[in-house]
Amino acid sequence: MIIILMGPPGAGKGTQGDLLVKKWPTFCKVSTGDLLRDQIKKETEVGLKVKDVIAGGNLVDDDLLFEVLKNFLKEQGDKKILLDGFPRTVNQAKLLDTLNNQYKVAKVVNLSIDTRVLVDRLSGRRICSQCGAIFHVSNFIMNQEQETCPACLSGKLVQRPDDFPDRIKNRLEVYENQTRPVIEYYKQRGICSEVDAMGEKDQVFKRLIETL
Ligand code: AP5
User: Fold this and answer.
1) Centroid of ligand 1 to alpha carbon of 14 (angstroms)
2) Active-site residue, selected from the candidate residues 80, 160, 187, 201
3) CA separation (Å) from 145 to 15, 94, 126, 136, 157?
4) Catalytic residue at 116?
5) Parallel, antiparallel, or unpaired for β 80-84 and 2-6?
6) What percent of the chain has pLDDT above 90?
7) Where do the H-state alpha helices sit in 56-114?
8) What is the number of the ligand 1 atom nearest to the C-alpha of 203?
9) Which atom of ligand 1 is nearest to 134's Cα?
10) Prediction pTM value
11) Which CATH architecture has domain 2-114+166-211?
12) Tens of pLDDT along 15-40?
């Protein structure tokens, strides 16, 4: 069984996905962005291929990413899956349908949000290079830049290369052109709901749980 979290870059898919698996530990969160960044970190063949594509805010090739995803899913046994960041094209949605025997898409939630909020969230995002925890610079005391992760107390907080302003603009355009049609694909099946992603994380989470 699969639940898909959709929404534009910065809508809070990663943040809400982490909260969800904490509440429902029978789910395993799979972020295709994280899978790809892991390949880049390990300097694998896939990582070398996708590094510049991701930094530029463009989409990775459908078939290449689907192979990476399938390999990861094989390792998860019969866990329920929370997908963050996949599918992002209608073709990817069709590829996912080929796994229907083992992984049926039960529900899709689209996190909807104003574009001006997205830009602020993305440009202020910092990620722990060690544990992957997600923060925003506005959470830090007196708005000072914090370098060490407050969650694991050892990793360094870094900015993703695709969070620089010109890349954010491109990602939002890519989302509108290539990913928004996927929402319609699932709406036609009657399994897609909208959740308002504006406001505090806990408020959004409450809406998400109510919807699911
Ligand atoms: P990916 O990592 O999936 O990036 P994304 O979809 O652009 O989404 P983000 O991770 O930027 O945002 P998010 O919605 O998870 O928000 P977050 O919770 O972090 O993909 C990266 C790249 O990989 C793609 O561009 C592409 O190149 C490639 N890729 C991945 N999947 C692919 C696919 N299927 N096909 C092809 N290529 C693929 O929150 C953002 C910030 O806001 C944080 O700082 C957070 O603390 C803050 N925040 C969150 N919620 C709130 C709130 N309620 N109030 C205040 N602040 C909040």
Assistant:
1) 6
2) 160
3) 20, 43, 10, 10, 9
4) no
5) parallel
6) 77
7) 62-74, 90-97
8) 53
9) 46
10) 0.91
11) 3-Layer(aba) Sandwich (3.40)
12) 999 999 999 999 999 999 999 999 99
